[in-house]
Design a protein that fits this description.
- The chain has 247 residues and is of the alpha+beta class.
- The protein has 6 helices and 9 strands; from the N terminus they run H-E-E-E-E-E-E-E-E-E-H-H-H-H-H.
- The longest helix is centred in the N-terminal third of the chain and has 36 residues, at 9-44.
- The radius of gyration is 27 Å and the shape is elongated.
Length: 247
């Protein structure tokens, strides 16, 4: 008489809830760390608030006035590095504030006429934050072509895009993720785990050959290991052995 295999559903449910709780806790911790970093930066720079306004720190060496258009360009349409802006350092982090900007002295443009006089200064709204705290799509970083997942991150220099206004230096160092992949696909790994997980094919595909052998000879941990690995892959907890990204 064949031996019956009994899967403890309570145990599987407990594993799933535990993994989900850990994932949520990790996400909340990352958000809290980012907020703490923002508040720390504001406190460290509060000593400079004695002067109400502070000029933005631009790269003077690479500035070329010819890239700022011609005499027909309106001053208010110019972007960095063609303009210099002053910011109110007493602004509230994350809220919209107003900066006073003007073209650089070498830049020729058409200003607004006020009381019969040409006014080259203009106001522009911005979000109160430091440049190194801008979102990923708001700054460009130099890519490291030799980066691999064995090192996790690499140091690079980033520059805020010309349309973004922010406090502090517009160029800053940053630890960026390698984002390296060897071509493994998330959907393929998930399908292999569900269909052929009892033979450890999913583990072999992800490069975990030791676990794959154990899974093969245990017939997927009598089904329990198959369910657990399927859940781990589906929530992104289980990836490749070398840390490369799943496409």
């Amino acid at each position: 008489m064949p031996r019956r295999v009994v899967v403890d559903l309570k145990f599987v449910a407990f594993m799933f809830i535990s993994l989900a709780a850990n994932y949520i806790k990790y996400t909340e911790t990352a958000i809290d760390d980012r907020n703490d970093q923002s508040m720390k930066a504001l406190r460290q720079n509060s000593s400079h608030s004695d002067s109400q306004y502070s000029l933005s720190q631009d790269d003077e060496r690479n500035f070329n006035p010819s890239q700022c258009g011609r005499n027909t360009t309106r001053c208010s349409d110019l972007q960095f590095p063609c303009i210099r802006c002053s910011y109110n350092l007493s602004c509230i982090y994350g809220e919209t504030s107003t900066a006073t900007c003007e073209p650089r002295s070498q830049v020729q443009c058409i200003g607004e006429v006020e009381n019969g006089k040409e006014k080259r200064t203009f106001n522009r709204d911005f979000i109160c934050r430091y440049c190194f705290l801008t979102e990923l799509w708001e700054h460009d970083c130099k890519q490291n072509t030799n980066c691999n997942s064995a090192y996790g991150t690499y140091k690079t220099n980033c520059t805020v895009k010309s349309t973004v206004l922010c406090l502090g230096s517009r160029q800053f160092p940053k630890n960026a993720k390698c984002n390296w992949t060897r071509g493994s696909k998330y959907f393929t790994a998930l399908v292999l785990s569900i269909t052929l997980g009892g033979f450890g094919v999913d583990r072999f595909y992800l490069g975990h050959w030791q676990e794959g052998i154990g899974k093969l000879f245990s017939f997927g941990g009598l089904g329990v290991w198959v369910i657990v690995d399927s859940i781990l892959i589906s929530i992104g907890y289980l990836g490749t052995s070398d840390g490369s990204l799943l496409l």
